[in-house]
């Protein structure tokens, strides 16, 4: 029986305050306990045969609602032991640890805790509690407990509860295939077993919004192989193929005003483990070029369509009535009296046809002064700094020069014929 503890290791970047008053327990890192804290230890005798205990690598190891976790430790020749000051619980042939958990606030709102030494926090929800002056890294401990007639259990609020009572996004057909295969395999291997089959959440793998899962039996030692519960994108390249749901998500986000952070908030409010920010950004970077290419082809198709309509009307296809306008990420007038600089850093100039009732957009021109400082290492066309740059105008250029943007748009239309 496998159990996984997910912990967040926080290491200092600045100094902070003292520890809150009260009696509570933290897991001890290699750097030691905070000053004047009492130390205790617990030795758990886990499964002897084919033990699969593991920890994340690298690691730094040396749980306000009530709840507990119970470990059914090794039955044969049990060697559990303990010492020092331990948290509330039972420490005999088996192990029970009591916890106080809370999730009434936003984990993204940083709190103040002492930062002179690294420490661990046990995760109650899917995101780590931010702490002012600390950097965070996720680590885990996986315990392989008694395999036969395992009696592991939990109650109330505890660090493992979020795993079992959250939602997942899976492809229905893939989920059906998994359970049909699992039922048949379990019946063949353990025909007399009356245990329940369930997802083994200690083994699941999250890839963006896609999931890989396996099943286990609550009574016998049966465990299935891993199943992809998502559809993959066909590819001739080597390596892991992309999940359709991850690419589709980015296509949708590109057509809406919400950001990665906003989508993650929606997921967390829906009790769905959200994709990581870095993973979503990586996918967005990969798909944005494809979206841009398709948008350019679509604009070309719209221009050809307007020409055909003009020809059908018996009119000159080279003369098209248009309207144009520019939008900014920040209103130009919002900086009046506040700053001598223009508050906008990005704009999009669009040209729409006035020949049909649809007023379809036939050309667009994006301009940006924003760039990634991380990429300032190689040359750029803008010339202000080194590095591949998303900025396509200089910082000193007037972003409100709509005459310039209109001229560039019309020159592109002229070249297109």
TrEMBL record:
Limits of the Mutator-like transposase domain: 167-415
Residues making up the signal peptide according to the UniProt record: 1-16
Cytoplasm found in the keyword field: no
Domain Apextrin C-terminal: 62-166
Alphabetic keyword roster: Signal
PANTHER family: MUCIN-5AC, PERFORIN-LIKE PROTEIN 1
Protein's recorded name: Uncharacterized protein
Naturally occurring in which organism (per UniProt): Mytilus edulis (Blue mussel)
């Amino acid at each position: 029986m496998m159990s996984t503890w997910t912990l967040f290791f926080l290491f200092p970047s600045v100094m902070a305050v003292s520890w809150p008053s009260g009696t509570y327990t933290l897991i001890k890192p290699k750097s030691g306990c905070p000053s004047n804290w009492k130390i205790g230890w617990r030795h758990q005798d886990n499964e002897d045969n084919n033990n699969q205990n593991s920890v994340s690598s690298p690691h730094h190891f040396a749980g306000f609602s009530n709840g507990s976790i119970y470990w059914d430790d090794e039955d044969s020749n049990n060697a559990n032991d303990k010492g020092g000051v331990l948290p509330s619980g039972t420490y005999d042939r088996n192990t029970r640890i009591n916890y106080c958990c809370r999730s009434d606030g936003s984990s993204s709102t940083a709190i103040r805790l002492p930062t002179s030494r690294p420490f661990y926090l046990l995760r109650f929800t899917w995101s780590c509690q931010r702490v002012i002056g600390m950097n965070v890294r996720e680590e885990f401990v996986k315990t392989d407990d008694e395999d036969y007639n395992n009696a592991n259990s939990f109650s109330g609020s505890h660090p493992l509860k979020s795993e079992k009572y959250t939602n997942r996004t899976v492809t229905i057909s893939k989920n059906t295939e998994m359970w049909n295969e699992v039922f048949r395999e379990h019946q063949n291997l353990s025909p007399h077993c009356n245990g329940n089959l369930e997802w083994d959440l200690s083994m699941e793998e999250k890839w963006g919004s896609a999931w890989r899962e396996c099943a286990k039996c609550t009574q016998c030692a049966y465990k299935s192989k891993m199943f992809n519960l998502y559809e993959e994108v066909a590819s001739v390249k080597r390596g892991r193929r992309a999940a359709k749901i991850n690419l589709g998500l980015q296509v949708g986000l590109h057509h809406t005003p919400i950001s990665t952070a906003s989508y993650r908030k929606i997921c967390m409010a829906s009790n769905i483990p959200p994709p990581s920010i870095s993973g979503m950004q990586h996918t967005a970077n990969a798909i944005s070029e494809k979206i841009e290419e398709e948008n350019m082809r679509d604009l070309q198709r719209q221009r050809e369509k307007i020409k055909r309509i003009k020809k059908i009307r018996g009119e000159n296809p080279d003369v098209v009535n248009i309207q144009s306008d520019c939008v900014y990420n920040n209103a130009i007038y919002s900086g009046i009296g506040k700053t001598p600089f223009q508050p906008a850093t990005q704009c999009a100039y669009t040209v729409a046809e006035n020949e049909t009732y649809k007023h379809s957009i036939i050309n667009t021109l994006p301009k940006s002064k924003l760039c990634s400082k991380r990429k300032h290492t190689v040359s750029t066309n803008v010339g202000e700094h080194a590095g591949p740059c998303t900025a396509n105008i200089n910082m000193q250029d007037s972003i409100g020069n709509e005459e310039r943007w209109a001229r560039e748009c019309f020159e592109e239309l002229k070249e297109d014929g």
